[in-house]
Amino acid sequence: MVSAEKGVKLLDFWVSPFGQRCRIALAEKEVEYEYKEEDLSQKSELLLKSNPVHKKIPVLLHDGKPICESLIIIEYIDEAFPAKTHILPSEPYARSQARFWADFIDKKVYDCGSKLLKSNGEAQEEAKREFIGILKTLETELGGKTYFGGDDFGLADIAFAPFTSWFYCFEAFAGLSVEKEIPKLAAWGKRVMERESVAKSLYDPIKIYDFFSLIRKKFVDE
Questions:
Q1: Domain ranges in the chain?
Q2: What's the start-to-end Cα distance of the chain, in Å?
Q3: Which residues pair with 147 in a beta bridge?
Q4: In terms of pTM, does the model score above 0.85?
Q5: What is the mean pLDDT of the chain?
Q6: Which fold has domain 8-80?
Q7: DSSP letter at 79?
Q8: Which of 180, 190, 197, 111 has the alpha carbon at shortest distance from 147?
Q9: Per-residue pLDDT tens digits for 46-93
Q10: I need a surface site. Which of 91, 112, 120, 176 has the fewest CB within 10 A?
Q11: What is the C-alpha separation between 62 and 4, in angstroms, rounded?
Q12: pLDDT grade, residue 221 (50/70/90)?
C-alpha cells in the first residue's frame, strides 16, 4: 500500500456514486490507494483544505496534490497511471462522445433519481416519467453495444455503473422496474457487475435500500 502522504489517497463517503466512480477507475488501472471515509456532517480539515471551493467528496490526493470532481478525477487517473487498460479512447471523436455521455449522466441521473427516491404521490410520478425518459435516452445510445463505448468499458460506463445499485430502490420505492422499462440497460447493468472493478466498488442493493429508507423519512411523510 502506498503511503498516505506521498502516494494516493481517496476522500470519500461509502454510498456516494461519485466516489464509487473513482474507486472503479482506480481498480481498472490497478492503482493501490488509501481510502478515507468522511463524515459529511462533520467534514475533516483535510477535506475542507483539499476542496475549499465545493467542500465535497470525492477528492483524490496524489503526492499531496488534490484533484476534485469525479469525472475530472477519472480522467486524471487514466492519464496519471499508465496501464494496459485505458478508460478513454485514443481517437478524438470517440473521446468526445465518451465525455458527452458521461456529462449527460452527471447532469441528469443523480438529481432526477434522487428526486424519485425522495418523493411520493404526483411529485414522484412526475419524477418517474422524467427519469424513465433519461434512462431510455441512455438505452438508445447503448443500442446493441456491449458498453457505451462499444467493446471497451470506459468513461460513460464508469459514470453510470454506481447507479445500478439503485435499481432495487427504484422498484421498491417508486414501482419502476428497470428490467421491464429499459431491458437493454438492465442487461448492461448485469454485464458491468461481472467486472471485478465494479463488483468490489459497489455496495449490496439492500444496504443502499436501507440507506434510502432513512433518507425518505426526512423527505417523505409516509
A1: 8-80, 92-219
A2: 46
A3: 150
A4: yes
A5: 94
A6: Glutaredoxin (3.40.30)
A7: H
A8: 190
A9: 999 999 999 999 999 999 999 999 999 999 999 999 878 899 999 999
A10: 91
A11: 9
A12: low
